Amino acid sequence: MTDIVFGTDGWRGKVAETYTFANVRRCAQGFAEYLRDTFKPAELARGVVIGHDKRFSGREFALAAAEVITGNGIPVHFCQGPTPTPAISFQVVHLGALGAINITASHNPPADNGFKVRDPQGGAIDPDGLKRIESFIPSSVSGVRRIPAVQAEAVDLLRFFDAKPAYLARIRELVDVEPIKDAGLTVVYDAMWGNGAGWFDELLAGGKTRIVPIHAGTNPDFPEMQRPEPIRPNVDVCLATVAEVGADVGIINDGDADRIGLADENGQFIDQLRAYGLMALYLITVRGDHRPIVKALSTTGMLEILGKKYDVDVHEVGVGFKYVAPKMLETGAMIGGEESGGYAFGSHLPERDGILAAMYVLDFMVQTGKKPSELVEMLFEEVGNRFFYSRVDTQFPPEKRPQAKARLDDVRPESVAGLKIVGFNGMDGYKFYLEDGGFLLIRFSGTEPIIRVYTETTRQDLVPALLDGGLEIAGLKD
User: Fold this and answer.
1) Cα(121)–Cα(123) distance, integer angstroms
2) What backbone phi and psi angles, to 5 degrees, belong to 266?
3) What is the 3-state secondary structure (H, E, C) of 145-202?
4) Bridge partners of residue 188, in order along the sequence
5) First to last CA, the chain
6) Do residues 51 and 88 touch, judged by C-beta distance below 8 A?
7) Cα dihedral: 440, 445, 449, 450 (round 10)
8) Domain range spanning residue 220?
9) Are strands 48-52 and 99-103 parallel, antiparallel or unpaired?
10) Stretch (H or E) spanning 86
């Protein structure tokens, strides 16, 4: 049987290769054993929320997991229909459940699917908890306990419900949607063939603001994009549509709607580091929130500048919400986020929410009367410089990782692309701080056989050279 290892956000694999019904059931058994080991017997009655996205056989994989959880005597609240990850996480808290299983591969390529787990706060389980779940996963399906779904439903262990009404009501509590509905905006909304389709539109229905939906159906091949990840080139159709219809903004959610991408009114992409800066600036200046900020080390240094200017503590952690979410809970943070375009809000949940993030962007526009490009310029004025970001991903077989890691452990360059290196962080990968306030980061993906090189700098002309320098440091380029 496949050895199952949880990465930065659960376990993922290729459908029909490693991602099989047998392995999903093994994962579910490991989670059930973890719950039994963590909670008192009487607490198990609180149950587990299970949901899925629009990928191939998502509902069937989710039901397979539900049969195992109920087979272990733990009730399951099963979301009817494809459900955004943030809505699943919200329902954990709303229903008082012990946690959640989410069958989704988020932004991964079409052939993949995944198995995410969440804690009682609706957030990612910390690294120690994930290791414990792994330790409980049986070596074969002979160690799995399950009962048929119809039988579980008959004895009230499997309960189907609609997750949408309570979640949308919560978003309306967090954001005054009426001014946004009345603003007369034209918003291109790209669901990337994912779970946000219909949910976002419903929030803003009935007013002067017009939603132009694209990629709103179901197609697990994800045409017109390489994968449902809200970065270029996957968002290029949305960017073109914004320009074509003369929209005020483009909103892009990834496949499970926990991440966001943005297009300005000119159809230009607002990268996810600038987007994080905008989210923080909105919360500080519009909402008056001065609680801490939690950031993965792969995201923008503009947050530290904003933190110093507005007396807000900034905490840097490893990549992945298994690090971000616990730190948010520990510090009472107002926001936590990472380079992938995922942002969580302390007033809501320690979990990324691409739909709430989109509503905050629209509220920022309405409250300030500024277009997206003007908000970006305002951010640059606040931090005293213009920042430029890019990333390159390179396929990298796992068996070569030890050799590459040994090389990276030893190398400590004094400069890259002519910029002096003024600091180093080995917390999660190899991060070199640059003299201009930017950084170069090299790290292995926790969910895919990829090595990533990231950079942020005030020198736009040096972005390609910095990425090349990172590849050279990693031994991937001569």
Assistant:
1) 5
2) -95, 5
3) CCCCHHHHHHCCCEEEECCHHHHHHHHHHHCCHHHHHHCCCEEEEECCCCCCCCHHHH
4) 212, 250
5) 39
6) yes
7) -20
8) 175-383
9) parallel
10) helix 85-95
In this structure, are 159 and 234 located in the same domain?
no
Query: Residues 7, 9, 14, 17: what is their CA dihedral angle, to the nearest 10 degrees?
Result: 50
Provide the token pair at 256: 């499970």
pLDDT per residue as tens digits for the range 294-319: 999 999 999 999 999 999 999 999 99
Structure tokens at 61: 């994989």
Distance CA(355)–CA(403), nearest Å, equals: 41
Q: Is residue 330 part of a domain?
A: yes
- Upper half-sphere CA count for residue 187 (Cβ side, 13 Å): 32
Evaluate whether 239 touches 263 at the Cβ level (below 8 Å).
Answer: yes
Q: Confidence band (pLDDT; 50, 70, 90) for 357? A: very high
Beta strands 450-457 and 388-395: pairing type?
Answer: antiparallel
Q: Last residue of a domain, which of 383, 400, 432? A: 383
Q: How far is CA 143 from CA 39, 76, 233, in A?
A: 21, 20, 44
Is 433 domain-assigned?
yes
Task: Report the run of H or E that residue 464 belongs to, with start and end.
Answer: helix 463-473
If you compute the radius of gyration of the chain from its CA atoms, what whole number of angstroms results? 22
Here the tokens at position 238 are 């949305």
In this structure, are residues 145 and 72 in contact, taking their beta carbons and an 8 Å threshold? yes
Distance CA 317, CA 344 (A): 14
Tell the residue number behind the tokens 């904003």, with chain if given: 306
**Measured distance CA(167)–CA(89) in Å, rounded:** 10
Residue 105 CA to residue 380 CA, distance in Å, equals 34
Q: What is the pLDDT of residues 153-210, one digit of tens each?
A: 999 999 999 999 999 999 999 999 999 999 999 999 999 999 999 999 999 999 999 9
- Distant-in-sequence, close-in-space partners of 318: CB < 8 Å, separation ≥ 6: 296, 297, 427, 428
Residues 405, 379 within the same domain: no
Q: Report pTM.
A: 0.95
Q: Are residues 23 and 99 in the same domain?
A: yes
Three-class SS state of 400: helix
Looking at the structure of the chain, the number of domains it has is 3
Indicate the length of the chain as a whole number.
478
Q: Where is the domain boundary, 329, 356, 383? A: 383
Q: How far is CA 372 from CA 17, 110, 240, 339, 363, in A?
A: 43, 31, 16, 19, 11
Residues 394 and 356 in one domain: no
* Nearest residue to 339 (alpha-carbon basis) of 301, 369, 306: 301
List the CATH number of the domain containing 41. 3.40.120.10
Cβ pair 345, 335 in contact under 8 A: yes
Which residue bears the tokens 């277009």? 371
Helix (H) or strand (E) holding 24: helix 21-38
User: Is 191 within the bounds of a domain?
Assistant: yes
Tokens encoding 59: 């509902």
Beta-bridge partner residues of 315? 294
